[in-house]
Structures are given as C-alpha cells and as structure tokens.
Amino acid sequence: MTQTRRIFTFVLRLLALAATVSATIVMVNSHDSTRVLNLTFKAKFSDSPTFTYFVIVEAIVSGYNLIILLLSSKGSLWRIVIILDVVAALLLTSSMSAALAIAQVGKKGNTHAGWLPICGQVSKFCNHVSGALVAGILAAIFYYVLNLFILYNVLNPLFVAKPN
Amino acid sequence: MTQTRRIFTFVLRLLALAATVSATIVMVNSHDSTRVLNLTFKAKFSDSPTFTYFVIVEAIVSGYNLIILLLSSKGSLWRIVIILDVVAALLLTSSMSAALAIAQVGKKGNTHAGWLPICGQVSKFCNHVSGALVAGILAAIFYYVLNLFILYNVLNPLFVAKPN
Lengths: 164, 164
Hints:
The structure is a homodimer.
Chain A: H1 2-28, E1 31-36, E2 39-44, H2 49-70, H3 78-108, H4 123-154
Antiparallel strand pairs in A: 1-2
C-alpha cells in the first residue's frame, strides 16, 4: 500500500514536471510577426509582464519538482515538502489564471476598453500561447491531485489525532 | 494552548471574511463614465469577464467562510474543512491574479498589443478596482496564514505519524 502510494505521487510529480517544462519551453518560443500598412507588428511572450511571470513561475516549479524527484522521500523533510507542494499549487494557479485573463483579451479583445483582439494578426503567437496555457493548466491539475492525495493521506484518521 | 489556537484561526477567518466582503462590494460598485469627442465612455466591473470572475469567487469564499464561522468547529468535519480551506486559498489566488493582470493592462496599457491604458479616462473606476484588489490580496494573505497555521499544527510530530 505504501509502495503504491509512493509510485502514484512519483508519477504525478513526473507528469507535473513534463507539463511545467513544456509550458516554459512553448511559452518562451512563442513569437510571430505580421505586416500591417507597412508597419511590422511583432509579438513575443516578453511583451507582456503577465506571460513573463508565467514563464518564471513554470520554470521555478519545474526546478522545485526536479529537486524533490531527485531527493529521497525517506528524509525528514516530508513535512516541509507538503507545505511547499501547496505553495507550488498556489504559484501555478496564480500564473495560469493571470495568463488566461490576458490571453482571453488577446483572443476576444474588450470592446468596452477599446482593446482589439490580436490573434487574427499573430495567429502563430496565439497558438503557441494557447499550447503553453494548456500545459500550464495540466500542471496545475496534476498538482491539485497530488496535494489532495497527500493531504488526504496525512489527514487519514489512522495517522492523525485532531489537533485542536 | 488549544484555546489560543482556536481564537487565532477564528480571528483570521473574521479578517478574511471582512476582506472578501469588502472586495465584493467595492468591485460591484466600481463604475465611472467619461465623455470623449461627444461619445460617452462607460466602465463597470461587468465589462470584463475577469472582474466578474473576481466578484463571483470573492462572494463564494465569503459565503463559505461565514458558514465555517457559524458552524461549530467541534464537529467531525474538520478534515474536510482543512481541504476546503486550501481550495478557498487557490480560488482567491486565481481570481486575484487574473484581476491584477487585467488591472495592470488598464493602468499601463500594452503598447505591443496596441491596448491603451484607460485609467486616465475613468479614474474613479480604476480607484474602485484598485481598492477591491487590495482587499482581495489581503483576503488571500489571511488565507495563506490560516492554511500555513492549520497545516503546521496538523503536521506537528505530536499529532501525526509519517504516512508513507
């Protein structure tokens, strides 16, 4: 049973690592340019502070996840890892939500604010961002399942007494 | 000691409730209009799907928090409440991050995408949104402290054995 649990969390971490690394790489490589009325219109992820934040968070969580995968889980650090896993989920949620909000404006625009959609002009850029966002959402989902599974096990009545 | 802990979590929940209720009310009441070249330019929170999402999340977390405050913490539901508190923190993080990303574009614009800042035209609206965002950030911080405190206590070696 313990062995099964360990394999399950290991696989979830591997999947989350694959998703965050993909999200980072795909977002970093998202660029496109188009010519409108003799003006070259370029788009890349670093044009938006939100997409830059997304890349930083996905890279940080990738690094953290890799360290946890390489370190033995037998150490005494497992309590701090539970807290750090929740922090990682919060960071992934934050970066994914912010990037989704900006991507939505990029795709649909906002007529009230006079912000025009840009995906018609730089569709290659938009496709890359969409791909990175899907990977980011998957990474967050893997972390939600991981956290739920770990917390469920920690809070199992067999292992814990009510703290207050 | 147990009594002190209970008072601390109660106060944190009260503060989080005050913050989420304030965020909801201030965001719902954010509207402004201006006239540019004989055109009336109106701004309200529901013009942006992100701000609407912010209001929905802050209202849901307010309701959840109120129920937990009214319910006795002596019941057998405390394990599910620990998980729900993490979910509430994730929801608050998501809505706050998305709203911050849009507010940043509203304030600074994005020259690369051709999105102009709107805060010069509808400053009253922007001030309201800023106020709601500050309340939303505070609500998230109160929930982070609450979760950290509860998880720290649950993971205390006195109460828990290593689950795997």
